[in-house]
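Model: Ready when you are.
Researcher: Fold this.
Model:
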Amino acid sequence: MLARLQREGYEIKRGKYISARAPDQERFTRLKTLGADYTEEAVDSRIAGGPRPSRQPQQRSGKVSLLIDIQNNIKAQQSAGYQRWATIENLKRAAATMNFLTEHGIGSYEELVERCDAVAAASIRTRESLRDTEQQIADLALLGKQIDTYRKLKSVYDRYKASKDKEKFLRGFESEIILFEAAAREIKKAGLTKLPTAEKLKVELDGLSSRKNALQTELRNIQREEKEYGTLRKNIASMMCLAFPEKKGEQLEL
């Protein structure tokens, strides 16, 4: 690569860092100042077939990432540069895993499993509460439509009941009578003795919608926590197998 740069007219200077100077350029430029892709290590890795650092997955601060399975990673088998990067990255991820466990007071694998189970149980409870709330919203919305239908057609039904020739009246208002009676059955099934006002129904629906939004936010947070604990559990299992291959399945202090 350096020879090609020289053929293009660049002057190369070696030292603690490799520097290059383009034709008519006053000062040398250290390659590493051009970005993460141009450090000596990054260039070596790229030549060996590894990915550019700028395209490698970045671990978010404070988050625990899953350890890379180097042994079964095709990229690692094909690229020594990628394998080196993955090894270093695994050390960082293992450190982040242990820091998380320390900060959350988890001292054994058994405690970690219990924490995972607790988060999973919280996820199930929240899902069930969300489903119940969504069903309540759907039921109340449908009941609101039935009440609206009941109110609109009550006068027609009263005229029908007061009519001397009900069959004749029914022929002219059959669909209205059917809709009213269906609405009346649903209202009776709901156990209502007095019809709520539209304003009261809206207040109740708004309350349920707010609860639904809160549960959705809670569920997203629990799902993130569930995923994080799942990653921790897999990382610890991998680390224990590497450190204590003869003690698989035993409860170990972390």
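Researcher: Now this one.
Model:
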Amino acid sequence: MNLRPLLAAALMLSACGTAQAERAVPIPAAAIDVPATNGMQTAVLAGGCFWGMEAVFEHVRGVKSVTAGYAGGTRATANYSAVSSETTRHAEAIRISYDPRQVSYATLLRVYFSIAHDPTQVNRQGPDSGTSYRSAIFPQTPDQARVAAAYIRQLSSAHAFPRAIATKVERGEFFPAEAYHQDFFDRNPTHPYIVTWDKPKVAAFRAGFPKLAV
């Protein structure tokens, strides 16, 4: 169920206080990491609306580009209209191209769990509900799969969150979203959804991870 077009105006009035209270959850760094290599690496993460996910990771030092898209379903259904029907198995996701000599995969996961989304919500994030808004990691290499699974176990054992972590490690190809979804945060700074949910999240990232922020 895609609530963004329907609730954007209402969110400005009803949810602003909640959004502005957002902060980075203090969680430990991952115990293991993907080895750094020469050249760029790619990460694919899903955690609710890709507008906010994209905005947070675009401000991470060492990230060179972020693409909004869909992961988990087929190429034929990788479009916003189909994905919003909640029948495609796709999740709104982002593809991150990053320099592992500047920021590691495990560090990206720490940002992902701490502030980019709420990993305890099942098939929803904030005002958006449906399987396309689920919390999921799509590893691009066996090392990424191993690190992601280990970090979920580590955070669960540490009781880092008040509720169980819902994040799943999944398989699936990534497909870029439509052009109008790309860089949505930067191109639509006064959009009610951006103002209510995503600007506070980016501010919370900067406050919680000042050494990572650019």
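Researcher: Key takeaway?
Model: The radius of gyration is 16 Å.
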